[in-house]
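Example 3.2
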Amino acid sequence: MATILVVEDDSSLREVLTIFLQKAGHEVVVATDGEQAQRILEDQRENLDLVLTDLRLGRGSGQEVLTRTKEISPQTEVILMTAFSTVESAIDAMRRGAFDYVGKPFKLDEISITIEKALEKRSLSLENIRLRQELSQRYRFDHIIGRDSRMQQVFDRILKVAPTKTSVLITGESGTGKELVARAIHFNSPRKDRPFIVVNCGAIPDTLMESELFGHVKGAFTGAHTTRHGLVESASGGTIFLDEIGELSPSMQVKILRFLQEHKIRMVGGVQETPVDVRVLVATNRDLQQDVERGTFREDLFFRLNVIRIHMPPLRDRPEDIPYLVHHFLEKFNKALHREIRGVAPDVMQVLLAHRYPGNVRELENIIEHAATFASGDQITMEDLPEQLRKGSGTAPEARQASRIPEEGLDVEAYLADIERSILLEALRRTRGVRKDAADLLRISFRSFRYKLAKYGISEVDQD
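Structure, written as tokens:
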């Protein structure tokens, strides 16, 4: 049930709409002119879900009602009714914040669809406000776990780019946490109280993508019964996150490039461009540089996106973070499943440290959720792990050997540090002290390699 203000100076139409809306289960408040409507708005404020107003009124106008509604309660939707409808007046009203307009005379079942969609948008807007308040606390850095030097670089870059308006390209394999980085950028930025909208470019059919992003005008194509705002405009003042940007078709790549360059959008079927203030963050698990070379991704769009890049390293390259992630996910699922699991058995930690994680952090999270669900005591045991993990799927024999834990236990941080130091020394020996070759052998950046050498105080190595 919604509370709807009907503003109409025609008594017969006002009565018809009132009866129709009440039969649909809504609470109806009526006003006969613009001045009375504005007094009701002052009194009701955020309690009104929808305003249904005639454009021309005896005293005041529908435009004035629209303007005052958006000043008092921005989340309240407004639908204009007019017998003098033109495309220009409709676009002007929607620019001022109207959800839609209906031309008189209209059928009740037609206006019912528009009302339903407006109330749905109102509900989503309120839910977004609630979620933003929740997420502003959850997605600062709490859910991005990492003590690895490369993860520290990620945190550093997030803090540096968050206050800016610059677009950011986030790269990394599936499951590494690219969306978490995008959320951290948004919620550490001046836009944190505005919308954060996620668009999975690989999940929306190409035929619908333009309409989803930029909206469409009424009658633009078959099924376009009402004018509909796109996701870009819905993110106004905030951030839009285009995940899997590499999946866009060549034609959509052109439209995205134009939007990034001009900061304007044009609805499908529309003729007028609308300026938008939206920050764009994009992510991909593809190598866009290779896609450019293959001709499947536009070079100009790649250069436009690749101004600032944040790369999420795969979990297999930062095993020292696994114990911290395990602890984090155990806390999460203890709350979700109402459990009191204190930790994991030593042999379980061996398996978790040795696993290769093709699904990255997301895979580890799923493993811990599975184990926490089936755990019968206050500790995760081997029997609680997924079957394929118990069988050692994806675990190298040498990794299992290296991850044996003595009966008396061990300091896992010091143990992992010793292993990493030994690997660095061995890489230097095999490359006869050539640090660039050693970094390439270990598949890490030269900068990261130098950082690790300094971390462990390695200055030279015996070549014999």
